[in-house]
Design goal:
Radius of gyration: 23 Å
CATH topology of the largest domain: TIM Barrel
Distance between the termini: 19 Å
Number of strands: 19
CATH class of the largest domain: Alpha Beta
Bound molecules: pyridoxal-5'-phosphate
CATH architecture of the largest domain: Alpha-Beta Barrel
Number of domains: 2
Shape: elongated
Number of helices: 12
Mean pLDDT: 97
Structural class: alpha/beta
Length: 363
Amino acid sequence: MGPSILEIDLAALAHNYHYLRSKISSETMLLGVVKANGYGSEAISIAKKLDALGVDYLGVAYTHEGVFLRKQGIKTPILVLHPQPEEFKHIIEHCLEPSLYSNRTLQMFMEATEKEYQYPIHLNINTGLNRLGFPVHGLEAISQNLLNSPRVKVKGIMSHLAATDDLSEKAYTDSQIEKFKEAVASIEEKIGKVPLKHLLNSSGILNFPEAAFNMVRSGIALYGYGNHSKIDSLLKPVATLTTKISQIHSIEKGSWVGYNKGFVAAKKMRIATLTIGHADGISRVYGQGKGVVFVNEKPCPIIGNVCMDMLMIDLGNHEAKEGDSAVIFGKGASAETFAHGAKTISYELLTGIGARVKRVIVS
Ligand SMILES: *Cc1c(COP(=O)(O)O)cnc(C)c1O
């Protein structure tokens, strides 16, 4: 086991799951997003726990992530948010549900369903994120095309909102919700009732509950972050990243620390070397004091440039000895706060934790 550990707390996941459930009606289904190895944690344990908790759906970004879940025995419906045509045969082989987002992907998926009858698909509508999705205009022709094909069946209509975490952009979100309603009406008028409509991500569930339709898709909030400090305080971080102090130095004024004179001591000081670096996902942007880690619960800024396998911190006068643990983020040290120091977000920090960091599941 390497010296850096990402502890995955399944009890925290259960807490967040129940919190989210309490925010939606009992008729609304919950899709748990486990893409990017469960937001950088460990997708299988997360998926199995969500399954045990009664999640209705799981969501992944790419096909191979869904195939991996199936190979590990996950039987829950799995939505693939961004499938590629060359993988469509794997989607069908592993009973995954594709979110199709263009005429090209719809056409190619229909061609891939050689023997299938009414294979479940979801249509992704572009309501203003301008990332993926069918344009709202022109849906009638698509619906007609679908009506004539016995091979696929529209099980869901979805879209994705651009700024559910930003209430100053509420007007834009409201306009996206309106466009989604129009799209649903236009499709259903042509092909009849579609079982699932889903629009909201985590912040959407918390800030726009009126647009929950009958399914919501939550990722980040399940992992303990809600894009707002008030919400973060109600959730529990699932992942805690700890590393170790391997050496402590007392250095004189004028001493350099790390490569390229990344830090020069302005006074006599105590510094510590930690067993984690940019190869583990603690990017160089966290150097130069941008990232602050915790040793025995005391904040210690990262000094100099982050190295590949190590980084150095200013210990100040805090009590610490070689072999002690340092917490990068997690329990008692918000990943959102750590990420914010380097002008990024918890999503990026969490999903970037390297494969060298050992995942340890606790519950
Ligand atoms: C990643 C993703 C989600 C989950 O978003 P969170 O903000 O993590 O809750 C939902 N829907 C789509 C389409 C996504 O890509």
